Automatic annotation (TrEMBL):
Phylogenetic classification of the source organism: Bacteria, Bacillati, Actinomycetota, Actinomycetes, Streptosporangiales
Designated name of the protein: YCII-related domain-containing protein
Domain of life: Bacteria
Ranges for domain YCII-related: 14-108
Family assignment from sequence similarity: Belongs to the YciI family.
């Protein structure tokens, strides 16, 4: 099953002073096991553009769609057997301690 893992900042990071997981090791391990299909860091929210159409009129605005201190800073597309495996993959990601990770299953529209 495929999961989109949104990598997000957080206003309340972990206070544990232990060693942080290494992102390069996390990427290499999950790429080699076929669990990480792709991923990337996103540009800053200052580069975001929001597009909406209301009553047939195009509305384009600068910035993210929500006013929030927590923002999506990257993503990883995962291929896991189930949600439990996806949670274990997310748990080992460095941003699980300094930010937060949101897992969402991808919906197959062909079914």
């Amino acid at each position: 099953m495929k999961y989109m893992m949104f990598v997000c900042s957080d206003t309340e990071p972990d206070t544990d002073t232990g060693d942080m997981p290494d992102i390069e090791k996390w990427v290499a391990e999950n790429d080699s096991r076929g669990r990480r299909l792709e991923g990337s860091v996103l540009g800053p929210t200052s580069a975001a553009t929001t597009v909406r159409v209301r009553n047939g009129r195009l509305l384009v605005s600068d910035g993210p769609f929500a006013e929030t201190k927590e923002v999506i800073v990257g993503y990883d597309l995962l291929e896991c057997a189930d949600l439990d495996e996806a949670i274990e993959v997310a748990r080992a990601h460095p941003m699980a301690r300094n930010g937060r990770l949101e897992l969402r299953p991808l919906v197959d529209l062909d079914d």
